[in-house]
Amino acid sequence: MNLYYTEEQIAVRDAARDFAQNVLKAGVIERDTHMTYPEEEIKQMAEMGFLGMMVSPEYGGGGMDTISYVLAMEEISKIDNSCSVIMSVNNSLVCWGIETYGTEAQKQKYLKPLASGEMIGCFCLSEPEAGSDATSQRTTAIDMGDHYLLNGTKNWITNGSKAKVHLVMAQTDAAKGHKGINTLIVESDWDGVSIGGKEDKLGIRSSDTHSIMYTDVKVPKENLIKEDGFGFKFAMKTLSGGRIGIAAQALGILSGSLELAAAYAEERVAFGKPISKHQSVSNKLADMSTAAEAARLLVHRAAWLKDQGLPYDNAASMAKLYAADAAMKHSVEAVQVHGGYGFVKEYHVERLMRDAKITQIYEGTSEIQKLVIARNISKGIIHEPLLAHPS
Ligand code: CAA
């Protein structure tokens, strides 16, 4: 794994940093307070190519690698995690899924506008009674010959009311369990698609989270992804990449919390010296900084494995598990370093602390990441071997 960034990767990171600090920061408290969707900001992110970063230029994307993507995710997540989750879902779950498994016609029709950000996509797996236990899908897609008839309800869907393109997992044959699940591409304006109210959430408050109801929606056969029965594997493969994006989001929350706490500790004086000179505070900063570096190494390793075409499922779970738990733990500490100021919105750390919680929940809870890692241990993957250089 190369620890030096290329000039292109550095340029992407710097562009994301400038955009986050100079554009997103100004209105982030207001948007968070009033749960306002970042309409203008997402438009600008689309223009900058952040919504289809890894899609090949042939389909209008940036053709960038996963390292560039996680660098951009980290910078944007230091400031606005509603924007970064919108970006992450569109890039990792929707665009990647269609580019990797879609037909040429699906790529022409859906991937191109998704990559340019002209359209936004959503990923509809979770249900009222199927969250971690994702094989227990109640949504059904009945084969009617030339189309599927889709019925069911999906919960907690990021981009729910804004997405024009839905990737929907549905059961075609309950007797086949996970082998009877298909993924279908559904358009939001088709008859029978209705959107529930916006969720009022603890964190990522301006992201667009809704339930979606499908009632007798006719989905043409050409909108099936890959083949009958591939829907669950599609969800799992896609989520492995998604977990790298969310791990990068958690890393951004952690490194953003550290930057704020370190700056505050330098300027705040108590007992005659900056609080950074008090060991009770400096120890917290040292722990935060070490955790951020450890998280960054895990996130970049998972991204690098993906870029090399090597297996990355386990690495993605480890990165997400570690980065999310560290973001939660240390964003609380960043609030503590700020004392009373940390408890008010103006100082930004309380928002990062609230945002951290969701990284332990969505795209597989921390408990599910442990389950994935533990299952790999029982298959004998105890240490991931260092790879010899291919040459
Ligand atoms: N790649 C390919 N195939 C995979 C896979 C992977 N990463 N993981 C599992 N599979 C395959 C298995 O090989 C198995 O197939 P075979 O029977 O052919 O061998 C099949 O999938 C079923 O796997 P399991 O037997 O392991 O299934 P399980 O029910 O025991 O558990 C699980 C699987 C890992 C717990 C899975 O259900 C899971 O990841 N749950 C969490 C769901 C999740 O992450 N939801 C996030 C919602 S989306 C979201 O949050 C987006 C957003 O808006 C931000």
What does this structure look like?
The protein starts with 6 loop residues before the first helix and ends in a 13-residue tail after the last helix. The chain has helices at residues 7-34, 39-47, 66-77, 81-101, 104-116, 231-267, 279-307, 313-338, 349-359, 366-378; strands spanning 121-124, 140-143, 147-158, 165-171, 181-187, 193-195, 209-220, 269-270, 273-274. A hairpin with a 2-residue loop joins β8 and β9. α1 (7-34) packs parallel to α3 (66-77), α6 (231-267) packs parallel to α8 (313-338) and α8 runs antiparallel to α10. It is built from ten helices and nine strands. The chain has three domains: 7-120, Butyryl-Coa Dehydrogenase, subunit A, domain 1; 122-231, Butyryl-CoA Dehydrogenase, subunit A, domain 2; 232-378, Up-down Bundle (Butyryl-CoA Dehydrogenase, subunit A, domain 3). The chain is globular. Acetoacetyl-coenzyme A (CAA) binds at residues 85, 89, 123, 125-126, 132, 134-135, 158, 178, 232-233, 236-237, 239-240, 313, 362-364, 368, 371-372.
